[in-house]
Amino acid sequence: VQTDNRVSVPVGTAPATVARFRPAELLACVAVHSPTEVESLTVEVRRTDDRAAELVVGRVLRIVTEGGTDDNEWDITSVTDASTDDRLTITATPILLRLARVVYVGADTTTGAADFAFAGVEQTATEWMNQLVIPTLAAAGMAFELGTVDSTARFALNGEWASVLEIVRAIAAPGHANAEVRLRMGGSYGYVI
Fold it and tell me: Chunked in runs of 10, what are the mean pLDDT values of the chain (193 residues)?
């Protein structure tokens, strides 16, 4: 369990690990990864465990796999103490959904008015990310950096989207970058896309 910039950590401060749980210490852990269902993670821990106090809304659950090749980070969205036994249920959503909170708004080059649509010549995924995504997140006060982008394919990107997440998914789509999008903690603070 890590603190995060969303919960009383000054901007520019690295998130700190505040609790660790081994798989055997969890009463239950269910992750839903599906193109047709809402992605979620549900974890149950003992209410009497001293570390349970660190499981608060806004903190990050980081699932670390053996070898660290498929780690995932989740925003804690609810902590429920509704059972009659010694269980707390923690529900979390993928941190990638943070990108859905930021609306892409460009400026009309003639009038300067807000413009939600964009069209562009063929560029690489890296160029699109640096042109549309990273500046939009920075303008919203969210610290994100661009990580490794393997695709060098060039493609046009035209459309009208409501969120940065939709733009990132369009860039990664088959026929464009044909890529997997991951959001990971990186640098001294913030995240790498």
Answer: 53 64 79 76 86 85 70 85 80 87 82 83 94 89 86 90 86 92 71 83
pLDDT of the residue at 69 = 60
Beta bridge partners of 32: 40
CB contact at 8 A, 138 and 130:
no
pLDDT given for residue 9 in this prediction = 44
Buried b (16+ CB within 10 A) or exposed e, 54-70: bbeeebbbbeeeeeeee
Other C-beta atoms closer than 10 Å to the C-beta of 100 total: 15
The H or E element containing residue 46 is strand 40-46
Q: Cβ–Cβ contacts within 10 Å for residue 189, how many?
A: 16
Phi and psi angles of residue 133, each rounded to the nearest 5 degrees, phi first? -85, -60
How far apart, in whole angstroms, are the C-alpha atoms of residue 121 and residue 4? 37
CA–CA separation, 4 and 32 (whole Å): 23
Nearest to 168 by CA among 113, 122, 131, 143: 131
